[in-house]
Design a protein that fits this description.
The protein is an alpha/beta fold. Helices cover 40% and strands 15% of the residues. It is built from 16 helices and 18 strands. The strands form four sheets. The protein has a nine-stranded parallel beta sheet with strand order 8-13-12-11-10-9-14-17-18, sandwiched between helices. A four-stranded parallel beta sheet has the order 6-5-4-7. A three-stranded antiparallel beta sheet has the order 1-2-3, with no helix packed on it. Helix 12 links the parallel strand 10 and strand 11.
Amino acid sequence: MAENFLKEIYREAVLRTELKFLIEQFAGGSDGKERDNFQQVIKELETVSVKYAAMNPKDGGELLNALRKIQEYDGKYLEMADYLESDILPLYENYLRQLHKIRVEDGQGYCLESSLYGFLTIRDTKNGRYFHSRNDPMWEAAQIARRIYDPSMKSYSLLGCGLGYVAYQLYCFSDGSVPINIFEYDDKTVQYAKKYGVLEWIPEECLSITVDRDVLPFLYSLEKEEGHGYYIFEPEINQVPEDAVEIMRTLVINSNSLTAFKEVKRRNFYRNLQSDAKPLSCFRKEKLGNRFIIVAGGPSVDTGVDFLRRQKGHIPIISVGTTFSKLVSAGIEPDMAAILESRPTVMRQLEGMTHGKVPLFLGIMAYWKLAVGYKGEKYLVPTDGDTWEERYFIEKCGGLALSCPGTVTMMAVSLALYFGAKEIYLLGADFAFPQERYYAKGAVGGGTTGNREDWFLVERVGGDMVYTDKSLTMFRNNLEEIIEDTPEVQFYNLSDSGARIAGTIEIPMNEVR
């Protein structure tokens, strides 16, 4: 357990967390469990308020009276939520802010400080980065755990433990049902989490701790069979060996992408299943041939319009959603369109084109109104992912899964491979900022150029240099892995201005026959 002098501080601090959870629960109705917890929280708050009144009769007495008054709302959950939020919580927060000003530097690179509402936070004195919130580390951890927790996961790996708040809240959200594996660089941090944090609030049988200066044990833990989640404390990346930094940043980007729209994607999944869209396996691919043109969203599409007009009817064209309307406006109706995006803004990619002449291929988590509103052929694509829903749909499709790491361009490539491609021509797969643009003129929702301070130069098609960034480089690397894994397929890069893609043959568009 935490040091004795912290036990009362933390007991009082955690009551704020309990209050905030009760407000959420009562705002949405309640059941017996929340009501029992409510009575226990109010009882403990009354004990604290008596002590508060001895220190500050006016404010402490006001809190005590407010706690007694809330019993008048018993069973009226919405009113209870409002009263807890507007009256009791501010009074209790005022009490917590008056106490416990702890600040201790250990002389070895860390500083322990009181947060605004009692729990300690920890700061890396070498770079000034905090591992936890300076207001309320426990509530911050609850939001992180809520975001990353998925009941389908078999275990979680955490790189770094801070003072144990995220691990503890993950334990609470899972009700102890999911093993938590913590990976730390030195035992000193672990001991801090036990002595001054909440790591020992987690039962030993639910927790394993690996102390190793190497990041490999953490990475190996992610290579288990499917169904293992992870979380990386970003300050920990500063301690990773230089050759592993990009790997860790990629993991953070992937994790953020997976969790940011988790509930949105799940809603899309169930709505898509209930639509009249058919599984990918229902699409008749026999007459497509073995050559395909993939039209992505990059600026090089602007110089390829005449080429696409010439090839229409000769080589099947698969357009991503961002360039679909651009091609149609130019009189080029692609043979297929692919969409992966899960957010409502994707609807702009099909504005005025719900007539349905072009078969539409939707990732199973794509925005649900596409599957409902599009009038033509539409097919649901089983995408390879970490969620239970994706694995369920893959199983329903007899094990068929398309690799779509990062972008819809990868989904379009995977579709061509599924159709039996032997030659794939990439147009607009620039993965760079030629002409300081990310997407073609007239492309819809194609992305932004990001922060120019993050740009760096890579080799351009033809041998010159072009600016790109880490995200685009990661997507390009994903495509290069697909190319490397399919040596029987020849990939051609038709871009005249994008980044070089390993494994492709660069040819001018006028040489495609």
